[in-house]
Amino acid sequence: MSQPQGGGDAFDLTPAEEAHARALFDEAFEKVVHTLMSRYRHLNFHESEDIAEVAFTNTLRHWRKIKPSSRASYFFKASDNLAISYFRKQQAERQAIHKAYEPECNAPPPDVEIERREKARAVRAAVASLPGNKAREVLTLQCNGLSDTEIAEQTGKSKDTVRSQRSKSFPQLREALSDYGKEGE
Question: Looking at the record, which segments are called Disordered (predicted)?
């Protein structure tokens, strides 16, 4: 069994106090370690031993301030408090690691994204199948997010012509897209 770090000299204990401290250590150390492991299931044997050693060192540091009859319970309570602090630190570290590696994702779920892409592909194919380059050009530009004014500027057409070509091509586009979604049925 390991002995606490620092003997009587480090804590300025008298030989009688040092003998009493060694007796307490020998009697209570193993009980504290096993109590910690049973009470705090996340602690392994070595972690429990380390916590008990630090708690015993703290007990020695305050040896003369503690009533002789309360020293064993002080040692147990110090061990318990250190185990709780250790658990909280571990939990905070796990949360920080999880947060650091948690991807910030504003993208839609994969199935929604796949469906969106399939729809876009179907619309592009339907637009490409329309007769006449003028209507196809207007719808292609609109699918790219351009307004009627922007399409008119890019094509050199009036805004009214852009609207007219788009509205004439919609029935044809609906017909071309009528089979979309029926393939899976």
Answer: 152-185
Is residue 53 a contact partner of residue 4, using CB atoms and an 8 Å limit? Answer: yes
Distance CA 23, CA 170 (A): 93
Residue that has been written with the tokens 């916590």 in this structure: 51
Q: Give the Cα separation of 25 and 76 in Å (integer).
A: 11
Q: Please say whether the structural domain 110-177 has been given the CATH code 1.10.10.10.
A: yes
CB 28 within 8 A of CB 75: yes
pLDDT tens track for 126-178: 777 777 776 667 666 676 777 888 878 888 888 888 888 777 777 877 887 77
Count, residues in the chain: 185
